């Protein structure tokens, strides 16, 4: 079919028809279609198209925003929501995945259940300039690390595979975090995903090399891990990844959100076996976003 040569020209279709077709694609395809012709360009920026890309409950989400969001079109609103906004008195953030409009949430540290989190001798709460929330939780000293979070699957985008990410930093004067691996679990209904992780693998490697020099320390390391080959267990642990915002993230596990009818997504990060003291873990929260 040739453009602009007669009755077969797709650009002669009514704009409303073109808008409907574009709204069945994706935000990325909509932007690309604007290059086809004037009719497509007009349709690709219409509220009809971008209303379809926004979640059905976006008005309810906007009503929970800490700061009102100003926008002149549905497309502008979509673009604004591709950057996190604070909702629910600043205890949670919301954003959209720009490629498909899927919902993303982050639970702040205050929204998590941190064992002994309200005991100043064990955890300290304070602001950090590069955190999206008003305060973070910093580990002062514990021998039992247990962090849990949950979110309703009904507020997530249906028919979407999600992953949960632990968002954190490690203070320069940290102690004991890399010595023993942690365990993460993500559970939704019958779906259970577990990982062995290590929030400070560089320190773990340094300690492992140092312990090789001392026979007694090697035995102690093996006892902590629960088997003789502690090195193999260290290599099996997942390592964190650096984020563009200066934080680190650790994938905790994934699940498929079918119709959002399976209740709560339960997430946890724990280190219970070592029994040694640790400090310097700085928690921003747990993020839920579509798995790429």
UniProtKB/TrEMBL annotation:
Domain (F-box) ranges: 10-53
Superkingdom of origin organism: Eukaryota
Record-annotated membrane-spanning stretches: none
Pfam families: F-box-like, PP2
PANTHER family reported in the protein's UniProt record: F-BOX DOMAIN-CONTAINING PROTEIN, F-BOX PROTEIN PP2-B12-RELATED
Protein name, as recorded: F-box protein PP2-B12
Taxonomic source organism: Elaeis guineensis var. tenera (Oil palm)
Source lineage: Eukaryota, Viridiplantae, Streptophyta, Embryophyta, Tracheophyta
